[in-house]
Model the fold of this input.
Amino acid sequence: MSTDDVSRRTFIRTAGGAAATAGAATATSGTAAAQEVEPDWPSGASSGNVGSYQDARGQDSLTISVGAGDQGLAFDPTLVWVDTGTTITWEWTGNGGAHNVQTVEGSASLDSGDPVGEEGHTYEYEVTEEDAGITHYHCVPHTAVGMHAGLAVGEDIATVETGGGGGSNAVFVPQGARALGIATFIAMVSTLGLAFVFMKYGGTITAEDA
Done:
């Protein structure tokens, strides 16, 4: 076996290892970049029954079921994020007894009135700029059994990374991760290009050549 063959094999192994390392770095950065963001809900809202979440930004209207879940003691979706100008309709399922919608704390003044148990009953609320922020609301008769929910309005609210949970469509991609991905791609192409050139034309530098 010639010295050239050994040198080429050594280079190929090195190049392959570098490419694999670069690919792993890209995969890692891709995982980090896939973090999702969600409003930083107050504990009272986030502990509501069912616990479903919907990012409804960009939608003109949204319907929330009142009396959802196996026992009819939940709002679904439980947590929603909307833009100002969105019209929200709470619609009663007829399950779980009489319910209402009332603000616990926050900017939106939600109040559907006395509890109602009739299926198909609705309460409509158009979100305005005055409602910006996060509002925690509940069903008064069933507050003790976890019939709570949350409403986030606008973009100027505190958010947290959820690690891909919660069903949010908002994806946060850090600038550092983007830069790392681009640099890694360039490194992989360069490494493989050098490997091709070396295999086709390369030799090895021996002590006699030096």
Observations:
- Residues 3-33 form the longest helix (31 residues).
- The longest strand covers residues 61-68.
- The radius of gyration is 28 Å.
